[in-house]
Amino acid sequence: MAASALDVVRAWYRSGDPALLAPEIDWRVLDSFPAGGNYRGRDAVLDRFFPAVLARFAAYETMPESFHVAGGTIVATGRYRVRGLTGVAAEADFAHIWTVEEGSIVAFRQIADTAAIGAAIGAAIS
After folding, report:
1. By 3-state DSSP, what share of the chain in percent is helix, strand and coil, each rounded to 5?
2. Whose C-alpha in 28, 38, 74, 126 is 20 to 30 A from the C-alpha of 108?
3. Which residue segment(s) compose the domain that 35 sits in?
4. What angle do CA 112, 116, 118 make, to 5 degrees?
């Protein structure tokens, strides 16, 4: 039995398994988020986005709290829990919009409280 779109997204949050991302995924993060912008392709997400984000934090946790399903589109809401390199901690709300096709994540959109994230890393983000 094929995994549902929700199963795929939940598996990503649990494991971060690169195999869940389509080779040509369209990954979009708010420009005001650290390392924000558009990333095209699994390699760009894994080799450019995540290392750039994680380099700015001593701790970074994504905690989804609710999932809303509309076919292959999943909207997850939750909170980031972060600690900047200086030790400042923060929590920030997020909404993630995932598109899943044939068992792979083909698109991701992020909306987040960038002011709270900026406070943790000591940067004014607007």
Report:
1. 30, 50, 25
2. 126
3. 5-121
4. 95
List the chain pLDDT tens, one digit each, 126 residues.
578 999 999 999 999 999 999 999 999 999 988 899 999 999 999 999 999 999 999 999 999 999 999 999 999 999 999 998 888 888 999 999 999 999 999 999 999 988 888 777 776 444
Phi, psi of 38 (to 5 degrees): -105, 130
- Looking up residue 52, the CATH number of its domain turns out to be 3.10.450.50
With 0-12 / 13-18 / 19 or more C-beta atoms within 10 angstroms meaning exposed / middle / buried, residue 106 is: middle
Q: How many helices and strands (H and E) does the chain possess?
A: 4, 6
Q: What strands lie across the sheet with 37-40, from one edge to the other?
A: 37-40, 21-29, 104-112, 89-101, 73-84, 57-70
- Answer yes or no: is 126 within a domain: no
Token pair 């369209």: residue? 26
* Both structure tokens of 15: 């494991």
